[in-house]
Amino acid sequence: MTEIAKKRPEFRNINAFKDLTTYRMTAAAWTSILHRASGAILFLLLPLVIWFFDTSVSSEYSFERFTAAFSTGLYWVPGWLLKLVSLGLIWAYLHHLFAGVRHLIMDIDHHAVNKQFGKTSGLTVITLSVALTLLLGAKLFGLY
Amino acid sequence: MTDFGNKRTIVGAHYGMRDWLSQRVTAVLMALFTIALVAQVLLKKGPIGYELWAGIFAAQWMKFVTFTVILALAYHAWVGMRNIWMDYIKPVGLRLVLQILTIVWLLGCVGWGVQVLWRL
C-alpha cells in the first residue's frame, strides 16, 4: 500500500453551534470565511442583480420602475428592505473583491504568505469593505 | 510526470490546477470590468439618468466586454459553489443534486443577462 492510499483519521464530530462558536478566529480566518460567505451570498442573489441590470437599462419606463422600487417597494418587499438587501450585496461584492485581490497578491508574491501579512492584510480587507459599505449605505439611505 | 507505466501519476487529472487558474483569470477579468464601469460612471458629468446609464452598456465595445464578463462570472461562481458543496455536503446524491441546481441557476442567469445585454 502506498502512502497516499493509507487511511487517515477523520473527525466528523464538530458541532456547528457548540464547537465552532468557541473557536477564536484570527483576522485572516475571518477574512477567509467571509470570502466564502460573501461569494455564496452573491451567488444566491444573482437573479436580483440581473433584475437590477434588466430594469435599469432596458427602457426609460423600466428605469422608473427600478428607481421607484427603492422608495415605494417591489411587490411585497418594502423599499427600505430592498435598500438593506442591496447594501448586503454591496458589502458582499466589496469584501469578495478585496479578499480576492489579497489572494492574488499572495499567489504572485510568496514572500507575502506569512503570519504577519495574513493578519494585516486580513484586517485591511475587513476594514476597507465595511468602511466603504457604511459610506455607500449612508448615500443609499439618503443621509448625505 | 508521466501518464503511463508503474511511475504514472495516479491521483487526479489536474482538475485542481485548471479550476484554480480559471478562477483567478475570471476574477481578474471581473475586477478590471468593475474598475472600467466605476470609472465611466464617475467620469460622466451630471446626474445619472436613464440615457447616461444605458448609454454606457449600449456601446459596442462595452457589450463585447460585458458578455465575456457574464460568462466569466458564471464559471467563477461554478468553481466556488462546487468547492462549497464538496467541503460541506458529504452524501454523494445530495451533492450531485446541489451541483446540478447550481448549474441550472447559473445558466438561467447567464441567459437572462445576455438577453438584456444584446437587446440594448
Number of beta-strand segments of chain B: 0
CATH top level of chain A?
Answer: Mainly Alpha
In DSSP terms (H or I, runs of 4 or more residues), the helix count of chain A works out at 5
CATH topology of chain A: 3 helical TM bundles of succinate and fumarate reductases
Major sheet of chain B = none
CATH superfamily of chain A: Fumarate reductase/succinate dehydrogenase, transmembrane subunit
- Strand elements of chain A, count: 0
Most extensive interface between two protein chains, with residue counts: A-B, 23 and 26 residues
How confident is the prediction overall: mean pLDDT of chain B? 91
Percentage of residues in helical conformation of chain A: 55-70%
* Low-confidence spans of chain A: none
Instruction: Please report the distance between the alpha carbons of the first and last residues of chain A.
Output: 68 Å
Tell me the number of structural domains of chain A. 1
Regions of chain B with pLDDT < 50 over 5+ consecutive residues? none
Reading the helices and strands of chain A in chain order gives HHHHH
Order of helices and strands of chain B: HHHH
